[in-house]
Each structure stands twice: as structure tokens, then as C-alpha cells.
Amino acid sequence: MDKLPLVSVVMITYNHEAYIEEAIRGVLIQNCDFQIEFIISNDKSTDRTAEVITKILQESKIPEDIIIKVYNHEINKGVSTNFSWALEQATGKYIALCEGDDYWTDSMKLQKQVGFLETNTDYVLCFTNCSTVDQNNAIKNLNFIGYTEDRTFEEKDLMFVAPTLTRVFRLNKKLVISENSIVAQDSLMLIEQMKLGKAKYLNFVSGNYRKHSGGVWSSLDIISIRESKFEIAYYGLKVSNEKSLFFRKSLIELAKLINQNEESFKSKFNKFLINHRIYISLSLKQTVLFKCYLLVVSIPFLSKLNKTRILMRLIKGI
To answer: Mind telling me which InterPro entries this protein's record contains (predicted)?
Structure first.
């Protein structure tokens, strides 16, 4: 048995009283030939999450190869800070993620993914498919990602779905993700990780992603979701001069107008293109993430033809 864990499983939780037992048991069922460090970071839940965690761990037979570390914070840190803090506690060579309202169903999940990363050093991350369930565990989607075979992704691909609960990646203490207003911090981490190497999709279902009203994304209104996605797109640009700050402000303002009628939004969008045509055209590689969000996510009412035309205008520098 290794003195240090090979894998650190990081589980952040907040008010997951109804779901945390399944999340924990999904980790305890893992069948591995290496040591696991299991970190549970409870962000001062206001329900009985802390009590449920204690009860489960007292009543369960903990495998000898799993070391469990439970942290019950006395002051609420917020989802982003709690996530960053929990990652800092990890000592394993690899990190696996599973939030307190999701859960793993494949007992060989970690063995398969760690085995791949151990023998493929040019990959920084691997992930799998998952199913989606509601608050009552009713399955809503058996194939959340939609891929049907193993695939490799590189930085140039940028836009691909990698469910948080399915990810296993190499620990890199130099990978610092700023704590800010963005909700989807795991998306920002993926952007940074893809600069370090390749990602591998392994075609099997490893767990269930739960969609419910208390979830971080599910509880947001449409404008907050759009704004967060726009901020993620901006983060991908990695610039900090005055021009970029103006670009960021304009981008967020545009996101807030997304629910206006089609003609009104088109007018605002065209003005945005004109004001930032030089900045947008500076680097295709840097701005491709922004383009994808803008075209695929944030302008659903535009026809495929119009989206293509706008994309070509952006690529050519307008």
C-alpha cells in the first residue's frame, strides 16, 4: 500500500441532506488496487447534511484503502471558495470530483480512469459518460453526453462536455483558478487544464448527475446562467488590459439583454460587433470559446444560416 494516496476524491456539499448518502456510498464501493483519500467539504449546511455524513460513516464498513477526511466549515465559504479550498487539501497524484448531490454507480470507475492516466502521460484528464436523474432518482437521460465511442480532445477543440462527477485529472498545484463571481468554476478549470495536455473520453457510464431545484445551476434564473457562461467565455481570453475590460463589460451587458425581442437584440449584437471588431479579430484561437457560446448558447433564435454568417464575419475580423 502506498504511503500517499494515489487518488484524492474531492466532494463539496451544501444542504445535500437528501442526497449525500448516495454520494458517499458511490465512493465507498470503489474497487481499486491503490489508496484513496476521500475529502468531504461541508460548507456550513443549514440542514442535516453534517449529521447524515457522520451517521453514514459510523454505520458503514470503510474499506482499508480509503482514508476519509471530513471538514465541516463554521463559516459558509460559497461554492467557488469551498471548491478551491477542498482542492488545496488534496495530496493524491490524481483528483476525482463528485459533488454531494451526484453519485457514482460503477465500482470500477476510478480503477479504469486512473489506469488510463497512469499509462498515458500525455493526457491530463479523462472523463466518462453519465446518466441524469431527478430528485427522486428517476432517470431522465441515459446518455447525457451523447458520445458513443472513446474520443480524444485537445485545446483546439475547446467546446466539449465533461461532466464534473466523471472527471479524473492530474494534480497540479500550479493550476490556480481565481475565485470570482463565476458559478461554473469547474468549467474554468477545464479551460486551464486543456492548455497542459489532452483529455480522454472513456465510453462508459460511471454515475448519475442529479438535476434538481436546489442545484447550483438549476436554482439560477436564465439571465444569471447566460451571464455566467459569458463570463466563462471571457475568462478564456486571459487578458487584462483596459481594452479587454471594456470588452468584458460590454459582453456582460449584452448577456443581460438576451431576453429582449429578436430585432432589439440583433441591433445590440451588431453594435457590439462594430465596437469590438478589432479586439475580436486579434486572435482566432483566443476568442473561439466566446464565439461558440455566443453562437450556440446565447442566440438560440438565429437560424443556422445567420449563425454561420456571423461566425464567418468574426473569423474574418468583420
So the answer is: Glyco_trans_2-like, Nucleotide-diphossugar_trans
